[in-house]
Every structure is written in structure tokens, then in C-alpha cells.
Amino acid sequence: MQTAIATVSLSGALNEKLEAIAAARFKGVEIFENDLLSFDGTPADVRAMVAGLGLRSVTFQPFRDFEGMPADRRDRIFARAERKFDVMQELGCDLLLVCSNVSPESLGGIERAAADLRALGERAARRGLRVGFEALAWGRHINDYRDAWEAVRRADHPAIGLVLDTFHILARKTDLGAIAAIPRDRIFLVQVADAPVLDMDYLSWSRHFRNFPGQGDLPLLDYMAALQATGYDALLSLEIFNDQFRAGSARSVAVDGHRSLIYLMDQLQAHTGVMDQSAPPLPPRARCQGTEFIEFAIDEGDAPSFRQMLAGLGFRCRGIHKSKAVERWRQGDINLVINSEKEGFAHSYNIVHGTAVCAIGLNVEDAAATLDRARRLLDTPFQQAVGPGELEVPAVRGLGGSLLYFIDHKTDLARVWDIEFDVPTYEGPDTAVGLTRVDHISQSMQYEEMLTWLLFYTSLLDVTKTSEQDVVDPGGLTKSRVVQAADGGIRIVLNASQSNRTLSSRFLSEMFGSGVQHIAFATDDILQTAARLAANGVDVLPIPENYYDDLEAKSDLTPALIAQLKAHNVLYDREGGAEYLQIYVQATEQRFFFEIVERRGYTGFGAANAPIRLAAQTRFVRQSHHL
User: Fold this and answer.
1) Residue among 377, 396, 381 nearest 262 (CA)
2) pLDDT of residue 627
3) Cα-Cα end-to-end distance for the chain
């Protein structure tokens, strides 16, 4: 299937949009009229630029308020259409998108609409052009694709065809059954857009909240299966109105768009079992079996205090790299890597971000297949020089320029610790506190990036996404979403805020970019872990007494248990019979912190406790900085 994107989907001037579209490997572009009107050049200049970038102008859009206008307005409307045809011929574009009329002056009647379309088709055909008719969800008389198709069918002109837009159809929850009856050669264009499910008027919903396939909640696979039944195999284009996209990088958003279409077609093949003969199937989404390691980029000056913190948390150095200033610290199934090299990727990352998580290693079933899927989804592979005796571990670029490594147990990658590390001799007390594995990883990012990384994770990994939640921070609202494996093998929390005063936003300022803000470790007995942390001299985040007074009032927990929770600053949440207990280690200078959790059948993340925790962390930061 051919892919395209509308210029309205991206930020920037028209030339910047076209360059971004070409860089993202699209072949077609829909030229939005306003982009052309604001361009400092002629349509012929745009045609040359489009051709020079290896693109093709597939549509000029939109042409509004056309069908069903009163008789005294028709001559002027057709004259306006002829002017648009002039522009199209200069652009080298043969398809005009006409959207259904929203004017209060318009008159109803399918036959009237069909007659107008037929007359427009005659004019277009004389110039070798075509017209596609689309039903807007808020159209005055035609707002259903079935009525639009009936108008096209009755127009009965080879230059008149139908435009199908997923948003206009799915937002109204229109039945999809009639799509299969539409001849594929009468469908001139299919526009694809996803969106979150919102309760608002169709126009506002469409103009501000559309997003790429996989980033929203509309049943696109049902729609695509209905379309597939027609045999349609022509143009699939993205027309996205989204405030975040218009505030973000055009190049990044364009890549997201192409990735979303690749992922959509991959899902469709799995959904219907019908293979796309034009492209080989992708390897399946990678099933994550856990987090193999989390790597910190640290300079020599900060390393001693970081080691001391890890020792307090019960970690012990279990490996020294054979040729690099890299250490492996371990507890349970958790591996933390301290990289203090003075050259290479981690060193560069540290220079920019300071002490920070520079890489995450995921356990997957097939590392090579995961990397292959990532490449074909337009993710960016990463390679650096591999020294003697070292393994080449597959990796792609992740959030904030960090790395995402893939480890499997079917190759030598399973032996990376034995191959690359020596085990140091250790004498001393056992300070383990009962941490067992990585429970979840929380990443903070710019608000405009959130949909990008949501698509990145869900298209590459076998995870599902949760609905967006608003978390109350003393400095404003933070948007939060989670991607997670069904068995909890991996959980990644994505946080973003439009306020620059939230803890999430302040972390971005301190770190000079997006990244991992906190890591949660699991324990089987949080009260025992808390006691051991105290014995190790670890300071945890103090929780106000009011929290425990309220907990006692609203729960059936015994006074003795509440006293234990209070003594150790443990937060508590319950969903039905499932329980969740949390403690937080006080944040570092760059506002990175560790969390420790105990799950008792609980699948969430303690959302009810988030405002309490954020207020406590904000208070701690202000006190520590004497603000």
C-alpha cells in the first residue's frame, strides 16, 4: 500500500514540512491549502521542490462549502473550483479533496449533492483531474460516509470518487458494514487518524486531538479490516490535527507517522491473517521477560557517593569489567551498571546529563529479531566500537538519546556478565535488604514527546498502554501513561507536564533533557526491607502524619499495622482485595530517586498516593535547596 501524509500534520514552513516528509521516507504528500497560501513562492516552485525531494503531490485540500448551495451562489463556487484546478495543475497534483458542506446556507438532498458533484466532475475531467468527496463528522447535511458514497454513486462520473477518513467514521461510531460494498476503484483516497476517546463536539475533537495510529483508542483495526474487504490497495494517508505535533519537531513527528502506518499494517496482517504481498511481515513484537540491567553514566567524582547509596540499598559489586571502568552491582535479579569510562557513549552522555541512566537492557526472546523489527519501524540502531573479548549487544536509541539494549538467552548474550566481567573478591557483612527485581521504570519527558514514546514502545514491544491519567503535583498537573507487559515483565511509566514547576519538569531542567527519573524495585516484604534500609542508614522520604490519620479513618487496617507503616514512611493503597505498599528513597541532586514496592495481587501504581508523594518530594527539595 502507498503511504502519504498531509502537510497540516507537521510544524514549520512548507519547505520544512516537505523535507521532513521526505526524510521520513514517505512517497506522497497532501498539500494543505493554508500551507501553500503562506508559502513565499509559486505553486510551480512547490512542484519542483516536491519532485526534487522524491515526493509526489497526491492531493490538494480542502475545498469547502461546495455541494448543495443555493442557485445564486453556484456560479461563484464553480469559478472558485476552476481557480483551484489552475493551482493543482501548477502543483502537478490531480486530486482535489472536497469536504461536505457545513454552511448554514447549504441545502440538503442527496440528488442535489450528486448533481453538483457530477458537474464538478465534468470540469475536472476536461483538465485530466479528479475530485474526492469526504463526509465531515460535523457536516450540515452529509456527515456519514454512506451518504457521501450515495452522492458519489449517483453522480456516476469517473472523475468523482470517495474519500474515507477514519476519524469522521469512527468518531460517530458509524457502522462499518457498508464499506465492503463500495467498489475499490471508486475510493480515491483513505485518510487515517487515531484519537483518544473524548466526550466533546466533533469539530474540536478533530481539530486538536487527532493522533497517529496506535497513539489513540479508536478501533482502527476493525476499520482497516472492512476496508481490506473491498480490495483497496491504493493510497493510505495521514491527516492529523494535533496541538502537540504542531509544537514538536517536524522530522520527529513525520518519522512517527510513517512508523505508525508500518505498525498499523503489521497489526492488520496479524488481525486478518491476510498478508501484504508488497512487504514481508515484520518479526513479532518483542516479548519482554524482564529488565536485564540499568546502566548509569557517572564521572569519577560522583561514583563514590553513588556506590555508597547502592550499598545502603543492599547492592554489592559483583563484577568488574575486564577492560573498562565499568562495574556490575547486583541484588536479587537486579543488575545496576556503573559506567565511569572517560570516553565512549556513556562518557558523552554524562557530560550532557550528569549522573543519569544512559541505557536499559531488556531480556527478550530473540535479540536479533527485535533489532530487525526496530529497524523496519524506523527506530535508530546504535553501534559503537567493540573491544577484544566484548560482545556486540543489539541496541537502538531511546528516550533522550539514551540506549535500549536487547539481551536474549539463546546466544552468547546470555553470558555477557561471564564474558566481559571478572568477579571481585568481597569480604564484609551482607547488607541486602530483600530487593528482588525491577518493578517499573519511570521516565519523564517533554509534553510534546509523550505520544512519540508511547508509539515507540507499543510498536516494538509486546506491551499494552493504559489511559492517560492526571497526577496532581504542587506545581501543576503531570500527565502519566503506562506501557506494560501482561505478565508484568516490564512496566514503563511515561510522565510529562506542561507546567515548568512540577517535579517532572524540574527533573528535565536539572538533567538537560528527558530521561529516567525513578526506578522502582520489588520486594516480598516491604516492612522488613524498610527496617533493613534504616539499619543501613538509608534516608527515606518522610510522609506527613495526616496521611496515616486519614488512612486509619478510611481503611480497616489495624492500628498496629498503621503504626508500622507510619514508622517506616510506607504508603498504602488497595484495589478490592489487592494491596500495594511503597516507600521512596530521598532524591539525588538531579532529582532522580528510587522507589521500593510490594505488590499483593495489585496491578496499578498507587495513583491515589501520587499527590502525597509529590508534595513530600517537593517539600524535601525546597528544604534541601533552602528555597
Assistant:
1) 377
2) 47
3) 58
Between helix 220-228 and helix 250-272 the angle, nearest 10°, is: 60
**Going by C-beta distance under 8 Å and a sequence separation of 6 or more, which residues neighbour residue 68?**
101, 106, 107, 108, 109, 112, 113, 116, 141
Task: Calculate helix-pair angle for 545-554, 559-567, nearest 10 degrees.
Answer: 160
For residue 47, give the 3-state DSSP assignment: helix
- What per-residue confidence (pLDDT) applies to 45? 98
DSSP-derived secondary structure letter, 3: E
Kind and range of the H or E element at 444? strand 435-446
pLDDT (0 to 100) of residue 621: 73
Q: How far apart are CA 254 and CA 493, in angstroms?
A: 24
pLDDT in the model for residue 586: 86
Cis peptide before 281 (omega within 30 of 0): no
| The pLDDT value given to residue 27 | 95
CB 86 within 8 A of CB 120: no
* 8 A C-beta contact, residue 31 and residue 7: yes
Contact status, residue 365 vs residue 408, Cβ threshold 8 Å: yes
Distances in Å between the Cα of 296 and the Cα atoms of 165, 311, 525 are 46, 15, 27
Q: For residues 331 and 316, what is the distance between their CA atoms, to the nearest angstrom? A: 7
Grid cell, residue 226, equals 472492512
Contact present, 35 and 60 (Cβ < 8 Å): no
Residues 6 or more apart whose CB falls under 8 angstroms from that of 489 comprise: 287, 288, 289, 290, 363
Closest-CA residue to 386 (of 413, 352, 357, 367): 413
Beta strands in 245-332 (DSSP E): 288-297, 316-321, 326-331
Residue whose C-alpha cell is 543501613: 536
Give the domains, in start order, of the chain with CATH numbers: 2-272 (3.20.20.150), 288-422 (3.10.180.10), 435-624 (3.10.180.10)
Provide the 3-class DSSP secondary structure of residue 535: helix
Q: Say which DSSP state 283 is in.
A: P
Q: From CA 190, how far away is CA 125, in angstroms rounded?
A: 21
The 10 Å Cβ neighbour count of residue 427 is 4
Report the pLDDT value the prediction gives residue 532, as an integer from 0 to 100: 97
pLDDT (0 to 100) of residue 279: 72
Give the whole-angstrom CA distance, residue 61 versus residue 162.
14
Q: Report how far residue 145's alpha carbon sits from residue 134's, in angstroms, rounded to the nearest whole number.
A: 7
∠ CA 404-408-410, nearest 5°, is: 160
pTM: 0.94
Question: Count of residues for the chain?
Answer: 627
Distance CA 14, CA 259 (A): 22
CA-CA-CA-CA dihedral for 381, 387, 389, 394, to nearest 10: 0
Q: Who contacts 507 (Cβ-Cβ below 8 Å, separation ≥6)?
A: 444, 515, 517, 590, 591, 592
Give the closest residue to 177 by CA, choosing from 129, 226, 134. 226
Rg (CA), the chain: 28
Strand partners, 406: 362
Distance separating alpha carbons of residues 330 and 569, to the nearest angstrom: 25
Residues with pLDDT less than 50, the chain: 627
Q: What is the distance, to the nearest Å, from the Cα of residue 516 to the centroid of all Cα atoms in its chain?
A: 16
| Type of residue at 520 | A
